[in-house]
Amino acid sequence: MWLHFLVPLILLTTWTVTCHVIDETAGKMADYSGYTLHRFQVDTTSNTMEKLESYDMELDQTTQTARLLIDIWAEPSKQNPHADVLVAPEFLQKFKSLLTGAELSTLKMIEGDIQSQINAERRAMIHNSVRRRRKRALRSWHEFDTNAYHSYDEMVEFMRLLSEQKPDMVEMVKVATSSEGRSIYGVKIHPPGISPPEKPSIIVDAGVHAREWIAPAVGLFMIKKIVSEYGKTAEVTANLQKFDWYIMPQVNPDGYEYSRTNDRLWRKTRSKNVTVNRWCVGADANRNWGYRWGEAGANRTPCSNIYMGSHPYSEPEIKGLKEFFTWQITNPMVYISLHSYGQLLLSPWGYTNERTENYQDQQNAAKEAALAIKNTTGVSYSYGTISEMMYPASGTSIDFMQHRGVPYIYGVELRPTDNPNSFAFNLPPSYIRATGDEMMAALNAIGTHAVKIKRL
Ligand SMILES: *[C@@H]1O[C@H](CO)[C@@H](O)[C@H](O)[C@H]1NC(C)=O
Ligand SMILES: *[C@@H]1O[C@H](CO)[C@@H](O)[C@H](O)[C@H]1NC(C)=O
Ligand SMILES: [Zn+2]
């Protein structure tokens, strides 16, 4: 928060894309001491969420710094009609005054000091990275530890090794270049063979929102799982024979690295546009797509966490993804965008509460996915359209893909669910495996459904 835009100017000169060691001094990290996480039942007749959102960032013109006042972590949905909201200490009184009487009567604090959660996670990561550094560099993709949160460079190194050591199954693809100049990669996975014919595709992206660390971890988990289990487990084998898989595990590497080194709660990209605003950096990459950009549920304030950007595709990450999806993927059948948290499978539309023409089929596939998840780990995921389950959001990738005619589309909110005492964005790495297993099961179920309905 305080350091959002002061630090990067200094850092960028010395701290380039080659850095992947976590800084152990941690002196420059944004500090959320005194911030508390609250939950309340949302009164459906109120416009409380919109009101709260409008206060999210305070800009101090004299010190030229911005400070986060309020941050919505979990939006209310039909199944869970409550909100999780992070509140700065000085904003607590004002926050309470914005709730209706009914909402206030259900208000409870679910985390007393978010900074201690962040510190605990950081200590564990430093421990881990010291341990990893003592070991030699990765020599084989098998050695890549999917049960840990990795730097962007480590993710790329894994994909590079995999494509070099499994060239008959894995091709590394470059999809975009970020604002800070990082190359954004993904992998295309197909059954063993040199240049097999193009098939319908399953597309997965993750990391759109920087702080949702479980999402890229699950993306990487799935890459490793598909390659290792091809020919061993029936469902993985069948779905790889039917589909080309494109997995882009980290599409917002600037934001991700920033969330590792400067501000654990960073969500946006790291683009700078001094014409628009000199102090506030980045846009919400999932409000920046061009289809119905800037309609319901978009924010025009550059400091906001859900700022839609100065124009459609203003973010080079999103422009690159759009070009890649449009020109490189000929027959997209399934599109999944991984986020956290809340355990939801969200389908289009986001910009309107009208139903898509293939609404029922999308819901049927989501139901199969939720059953497969339940069968795999016993965990419950809910499903529905974005506007049905929550508030409208426009400029999202799933609306773009729906407009493009992709039949099966889900924005996934991974674990945890918004239960009391949840870890929110700080899900310990010990949960990656189960979250990855259940997502793999969900994707296989959606693939199987598509094969049946579309006669692939
Ligand atoms: C910066 O914002 C201005 C004003 O909205 C816009 O015209 C311009 O294209 C933006 N620049 C970039 C690089 O996005
Ligand atoms: C549940 O899981 C078992 C074992 O993993 C599998 O054989 C079965 O087909 C699954 N059932 C469903 C409905 O997914
Ligand atoms: Zn997200």
TrEMBL record:
The active site is at E413 (proton donor/acceptor). One of its GO terms (biological process) is proteolysis. It is found in: Secreted. GO terms for molecular function: metallocarboxypeptidase activity; zinc ion binding. The keyword tRNA-binding does not apply. CDD domains: M14_CP_A-B_like. Keywords: Carboxypeptidase, Disulfide bond, Hydrolase, Metal-binding, Metalloprotease, Protease, Secreted, Signal, Zinc. Residues 1-19 form the signal peptide. Its cofactor is Zn(2+). GO terms for cellular component: extracellular space. Residues 148-450 form the Peptidase M14 domain. Belongs to the peptidase M14 family. Involved in the digestion of the blood meal. This is Peptidase M14 domain-containing protein. It comes from Caenorhabditis remanei.
